UniProtKB/TrEMBL annotation:
InterPro entries cross-referenced by the UniProt entry: AAA+_ATPase (IPR003593), ABC_carbohydrate_import_ATPase (IPR050107), ABC_transporter-like_ATP-bd (IPR003439), ABC_transporter-like_CS (IPR017871), P-loop_NTPase (IPR027417)
Name of the protein this chain belongs to: Ribose import ATP-binding protein RbsA
Chain segments carrying region Disordered: 254-282
Keywords noted in UniProt: ATP-binding, Nucleotide-binding, Repeat, Transport
Amino acid sequence: MTRPPDPPQAEPLLLEVSGLSRRFGATRALADASITVRSGEIHALAGENGSGKTTLIKVLSGVVRPDAGTLRWRGEAVRIGKPSAAQVLGISTVFQETLYSPELTVLENIWMGTDRVFRRGRSRTAERDGAREALDAIGADGVDLRAPLWTLSLAQRQLVTIARSIARPWQLLVLDEGTSALDADQRDRLFGYLESSRLQGRSTVFTSHRMDEVERLADSVTVLRLGATVAAGPKSELSARRILVAMAGRDVSAVTASRRPATNTHTDADTDTDTDTDTDTDTDAASRVALTAADVSLVPEAPPHTVQVHAGEIVGLAGLEGQGQLEYAQVLAGLRAPASGTVTVHREGQPDRRVHGFGRSGDLGIAYVPRDRKTEGLFFALSVLDNFATALLRRQQRFGVLRRREIRRRFDEYVPVVRLKVHDPGQPIGTLSGGNQQKVLLARWLATDPAVLILNDPMRGVDANTKQELYGLLRTLADGGMAVVLLSTEVLELLTLSDRIVVFHRSAVSAVLDAAASTDTDVVAAMFGHALEDQGA
Ligand SMILES: Nc1ncnc2c1ncn2[C@@H]1O[C@H](COP(=O)(O)OP(=O)(O)OP(=O)(O)O)[C@@H](O)[C@H]1O
């Protein structure tokens, strides 16, 4: 049994976990996992998809009982047999798959299931004040306590679940992919809260597949691989590269994908605020227009804007939460109608086809990979294989029955492409780790071989090493002639992958940036609606 070296800081130990193991049937989710957390530290728990992070967190929060292992809290041996035991210690967890009731209000969700110990004697006013304070502390001041949860965006729901955890007395906050739906601004505010909590001597354990978050926040890091702790220590002694190598158990190549060289000719001139759609007359195959959004405005008061996406091009969509980029992706995918303007698909050798906002664009060769796998994407009652097959089946219905054997063949083809870790394709999708569920969603749409691939934050929950491989895959698909539209909350991801980035502010296009000539500051400035000239760019 390995025990990680104690971080050299002087702060007292808060939590010491060692020798943890847990099986689910044939799967060993944890095998000799350990973690040591000090008071007043922010601790990153890193690991590839399926390495056991969520299972370890579930043990800490009393949701899963370990088969073996010891836990010490402030030096005392403890058992956390049920969630209320974790609450009494002061361990508060924000789970990856957020548990909430869509029909209940924000306020009701925040206090739902509160242990009676904390709830007894609380007045409605005190509950309202507590909920408001928690939301304000993490910068979610715009969220209305009376709103039913289903009316909120995915990011707002994530903020509510975080508020729910910090509204209770806590000493150790555990965030499992707690920032994956947040935009850059919301993330900054949350980090500010965690940093001020650290100053008060409270600790945080967080999992994130974003190395920039680990770099920025973590005082210490624990790395899991195949359920075991394979590296641990102060962040100052663990570089990002060492963490990535420990996660993979092998040397990992640096960024495997980058946008095409800056010789790309599709610059702002093609698409900028010019509303004339006839200007793009390139006949070169690589410049063939695959999709035109002509004079599109998302809301009646926004100016119309024309964007053309070329075969072989990756166009990024950026914006702070709720600025129109999501609606725009859905308009391109034919899932909603714009306030004005038209979207047209141009396929080689076929007449142009108009994309209507009725949600039947698969027939036009458009694939849309949604963001919220829980409500928009996956069918949790079905198996991994059935979830993979849904899009293929829908398309193939027109050409006759697609044989089960053929589906399995396609599935096996895509498992290595997205690096899916699955024991048995017949197992329910809910038993896969979050990142692996995301990969099934991605594989489902890739297998339809679309002409236009529209991705809504596709790397959410996908581990850093796999992400690099998927970046390479997207670049290869684009080089093969696919037109790719990528909505992402990660500015670095957009800069790495895109040829151009369309930035949204207040439901309108605020800038179209040539990614090769732009920095993250340019993108963030445009997200806040600042004209580039104002930034001296
Ligand atoms: N209830 C369950 N039944 C069967 N297998 C399970 C169950 N819960 C977890 N597993 C398996 O345990 C392993 C570890 O999963 P876990 O969710 O802890 O990984 P993770 O590191 O959190 O991954 P991710 O980064 O994708 O969230 C995976 O192989 C997963 O499929």
